[in-house]
Amino acid sequence: MASNHVSYDATASNVRLTRPPLNGSKHSSSSIQRTKVLVLGLRRSGKSSILQVLFNDLPPNQSFYLEPTYRIAKTQIDTVVPLELWDTPGHATPESIGIPIGDFRSLIFVIDIRDLYNQPITKLVSFVTAAFQSNPDINIEVFVHKSEKLQEDDKIENFRQIQERVTDRLLDLAPEYENIQPNFYLTSIYDHSLHEAFSRVLHKLIDSIPYLEDMLNVFCANSQSPKAFLFDTKSRLSASVSASRHSPPEDPQSLSSNDASSTSSPIMSTDGLPHASKRTPKEMFYPSAATSLHPSTPGTTLTYHEITSSLALMALVPTSVYEGRRGLLEYNVVFFREGVQEICDVEKETREVG
C-alpha cells in the first residue's frame, strides 16, 4: 500500500508539495487488462489535484502546492473494474501520448472555468477530434474545474460559454463532428461535485452496471429501502445507485419477497426460505454499522455493509424494519454480497492475461 505521507521542501520564498504516489494497485500492468482513462488539460488546470484528492486523500487546501506534471504518470486503481489513469503534462499532444487514442475508454479534459481563451479550447478540440477518428465510441468527459473561484452567476455563464465554444468549434471543423457529444461537468475539489462527476464517468466504464443496478433494486424492494448505494471505499466514488422506484410500505411486516426467483438476486424464495448459495462465501470478516438519521424522532436508519475489500453498500432503511426484521435484512445483504463478488470474479477472470 502506498503511503499517504506528503513531504514539503521549504525555502524562504515558497513551499513545494512533493507529489505522493496515488494509492493504486501494485499489480503489474501485464498481469491484467486494465481500462485506460486519459486525463488531459493545460498546466495548472487541476488535473493532478483531482486525482490526488480522489485517490490519495490529499486535503484540498494542500493541492495548491502540488508540483506540475512534466511527464505522463500512469496509476492503476482497483475498483469494480481495474483502471489505469494516465495523468498527462500540459504540453501533451495526441501524437506524444505514445499509444493510439482509441485504446482509451474515456478521455477526461480538465479546463479552468476562468480560462475562456483560445488555447484550452483548441487543445480540447484537437484531442476530441483525434479520439473520435480513432474510436467513435470513446467517452469524452469535460471537467469545467475550479468552480469555487467564481460567484454563482459568473460560474453558470462561464460554464455555458465553454460548452458553446467547444460545440461551435467542432461544427466549424466538419459537419460529421456534430455526432460528437462531450459530457460537461461543473467540478470543484472543495465540494461533492468532483465525486459526483467522476462517479458518472466510472459508471460508463462498468460493463456490468445493469446487473449491479438490478441487484440494488431487488435489494431495495425486498428490504423496504428507498435508496441504496454501492461505492468504492477508498475513493468514495459511487459504483452503482438504486433507481429509487420502490417506496417503503407503511406496514413493516410486509417485507417483500417479490422477484425472489430472479437470477439477478435470489434474496428470498417464494416459501419464505433463503436460497442456498451456489458458491462458497469467501472467508473474510465483513464489518457493518448503522445509525439513526433522526435520533429525536426515529424513522430512518442508515446502514453500512462491506461487500468486498474495496466496495461497500450503504442503504436507507426504515428504523422499524431495521429493528424488527434485521435478520432478514442481513440475509438480503449476504446474497447481494455474493452476487457482487461473482461479478467481480468474472470481471477479473476475463481480464487476466496469460
Automatic annotation (TrEMBL):
InterPro entries: Gtr1_RagA, P-loop_NTPase. The lineage of its organism: Eukaryota, Fungi, Dikarya, Basidiomycota, Agaricomycotina. GO terms for biological process: cellular response to starvation; negative regulation of autophagy; positive regulation of TORC1 signaling. This is GTP-binding protein. The keyword tRNA-binding does not apply. It comes from Leucocoprinus birnbaumii. Belongs to the GTR/RAG GTP-binding protein family. GTPase involved in activation of the TORC1 signaling pathway, which promotes growth and represses autophagy in nutrient-rich conditions. GO terms for cellular component: fungal-type vacuole membrane; Gtr1-Gtr2 GTPase complex; nucleus. GO terms for molecular function: GTP binding; GTPase activity. Keywords: GTP-binding, Nucleotide-binding. It holds the Pfam family Gtr1_RagA. Component of the GSE complex. Residues 254-265 have a biased composition (Low complexity). Residues 241-280 are annotated as: Disordered. The keyword Nucleotide-binding applies.
